[in-house]
């Protein structure tokens, strides 16, 4: 499964419904994620990708779309 | 060694319901409840000051301690919403409590203020003597009122909480405390002079969801205690949804997290001690049973304090 599909799956697990928006659409502006769901999604992403998101990176802008999350995770996995 | 001898609280009489706010900001009352877990909050009258609330909470803690106030050798007052640049509310509060020339120090730290004050008081009590800690806030004065800001008006309430920290005796003995600061997010939650409170809610929730559980786990681990042993968690009452996530993260039943945010909203630095005052009225903590205090707020400042039943 490609990274963006895995990210989508993590978000779907958190919000308990399908995520149909495009990879570059805002997860916040579209109402897919609120503040609390974002916190859960970050925890889910850490588990899914085996990474640790440091507190300094806990900035909502880094997690505003599936594409941005993909970009961030790729950096963490280098 | 220090003890928590008593707690006190003061709340304004006026109840502001979700229905009232929903009508004023144009939303559904159910949305407010869903987003915050808050049903109602208290807003003080225009002529009630932070000092007025602080004095009432201090008097309540003194009365509940059943001790002579001359035993108080230091006062800390935490407030992020005090009316003046200086002096802060501490000096006038101590004066009105009849504490003479007892030193009274302000801690303008907002939501983590009473936790920080409690930790400092616990460490100072052995050398200074008993310390009266007060957190007092008039948050209704620092939100956008005309028109009401929907993101902050639904959350905040007014009130004050207090604790008598004793060198010699009390129902709870303080075991340890941890305090942390991360100034890299200072812009995310702030109150500029002459302006209304500014909050990047997503960042605050995201950071609090991590930092508060981490501080609780840090204090428990370094004292060889486990979360499921803790009989009561007394947290800054910010948002019921946040408390639920903290409970999940530390692995303790959410029922052990004392909650009154549904009745008073987020009263910033006052909230943790208001919750402690209500909880302590009928709490029975056996010897060595752990109780955890924790808070997170602007700065960011956060931490946790571990106490245990003294007898």
Please explain how this structure is put together.
The complex is a heterodimer of chains A (78) and B (311). With 78 residues, chain A is mainly alpha-helical. Chain A has 3 helices and no strands. In chain A, helix 1 (3-15) packs across helix 2 (35-49) and helix 1 packs across helix 3 (66-77). The longest helix of chain A has 15 residues, at 35-49. Chain A is globular, with a radius of gyration of 11 Å. The two termini of chain A are 19 Å apart. Chain B is an alpha+beta fold. Chain B folds into 2 domains: 2-166, Peroxisomal Thiolase, Chain A, domain 1 (3-Layer(aba) Sandwich); 172-309, 3-Layer(aba) Sandwich (Peroxisomal Thiolase, Chain A, domain 1). Chain B is 34% helix and 25% strand. A 9-stranded mixed sheet of chain B has the order 5-4-6-7-1-8-13-12-11, sandwiched between helices. In chain B, a hairpin with a 3-residue loop joins strand 12 (290-297) and strand 13. Chain B is globular, with a radius of gyration of 18 Å. The model of chain B has no long low-confidence stretch (mean pLDDT 95). The A-B interface holds A 28, 34-36, 38-40, 42, 55-56, 58-60 and B 35, 182, 184, 200-207, 209-211, 241-242, 245.
DSSP helix count of chain A? 3
The unreliable regions of chain A are: none
Report the major sheet of chain B. 9 strands, mixed
Please state roughly what percent of the residues of chain B sit in beta strands, choosing from under 5%, 5-15%, 15-25%, 25-35%, 35-45% or over 45%: 25-35%
Principal-axis shape of chain A equals: globular
Mean pLDDT of chain B: 95
| Biggest β-sheet strands, sense, barrel of chain A | none
What is the structural class of chain B? alpha+beta
Query: Percent of residues of chain B in helical segments?
Result: 25-40%
* CATH homologous superfamily descriptor of the largest domain in chain B: Thiolase/Chalcone synthase
Number of strands of chain A: 0
Structural class call of chain A reads mainly alpha
> Looking across the biggest beta sheet of chain B, what order are the strands in?
5-4-6-7-1-8-13-12-11
**Total helical elements of chain B:** 10
Mean pLDDT of chain A: 93
Task: Give the fraction of residues assigned to helices of chain A.
Answer: 40-55%
Query: Total number of β-strand segments of chain B?
Result: 13
CATH topology of the largest domain in chain B, which one? Peroxisomal Thiolase, Chain A, domain 1
The N- and C-terminal alpha carbons of chain B lie at a distance of: 14 Å
């Amino acid at each position: 499964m490609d990274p963006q599909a895995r990210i989508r799956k993590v978000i779907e697990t958190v919000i308990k419904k399908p995520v149909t928006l495009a990879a570059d659409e805002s997860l916040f502006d579209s109402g897919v994620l609120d503040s609390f769901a974002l916190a859960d999604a970050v925890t889910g992403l850490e588990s899914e990708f085996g990474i640790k998101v440091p507190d300094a990176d806990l900035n909502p802008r880094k997690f505003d779309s599936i594409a941005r999350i993909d970009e961030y995770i790729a950096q963490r996995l280098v | 060694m220090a003890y928590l001898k008593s707690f006190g609280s003061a709340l304004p009489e006026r109840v502001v319901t979700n229905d009232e706010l929903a009508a004023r900001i144009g939303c559904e009352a159910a949305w407010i409840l869903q987003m915050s877990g808050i049903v109602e909050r208290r807003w003080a009258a225009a002529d009630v000051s932070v000092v007025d609330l602080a004095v009432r909470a201090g008097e309540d803690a003194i009365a509940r301690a059943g001790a002579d106030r001359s035993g108080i050798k230091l006062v800390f007052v935490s407030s992020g919403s005090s009316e003046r640049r200086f002096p802060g509310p501490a000096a006038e509060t101590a004066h009105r409590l009849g504490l003479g020339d007892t030193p009274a120090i302000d801690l303008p730290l907002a939501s983590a203020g009473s936790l920080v004050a409690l930790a400092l008081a616990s460490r100072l009590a052995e050398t200074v003597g008993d310390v009266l800690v007060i957190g007092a806030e008039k948050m209704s004065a620092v939100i956008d009122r005309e028109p009401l800001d929907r993101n902050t008006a639904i959350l905040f309430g007014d009130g004050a909480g207090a604790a008598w920290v004793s060198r010699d005796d009390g129902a709870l003995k303080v075991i340890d405390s941890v305090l942390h600061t991360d100034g890299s997010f200072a812009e995310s939650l702030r109150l500029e002079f002459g302006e209304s409170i500014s909050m990047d809610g997503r960042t605050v929730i995201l950071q609090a969801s991590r930092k508060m559980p981490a501080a609780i786990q840090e204090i428990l681990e370094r004292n060889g205690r486990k979360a499921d042993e803790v009989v009561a968690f007394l947290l800054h009452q910010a948002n019921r949804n946040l408390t639920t996530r903290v409970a999940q993260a530390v692995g303790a039943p959410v029922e052990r997290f004392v909650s009154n945010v549904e009745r008073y909203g987020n009263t910033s630095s006052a909230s943790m001690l208001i919750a402690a005052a209500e909880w302590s009225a009928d709490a029975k903590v056996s010897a060595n049973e752990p109780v955890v205090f924790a808070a997170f707020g602007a700065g960011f400042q956060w931490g946790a304090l571990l106490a245990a039943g003294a007898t």
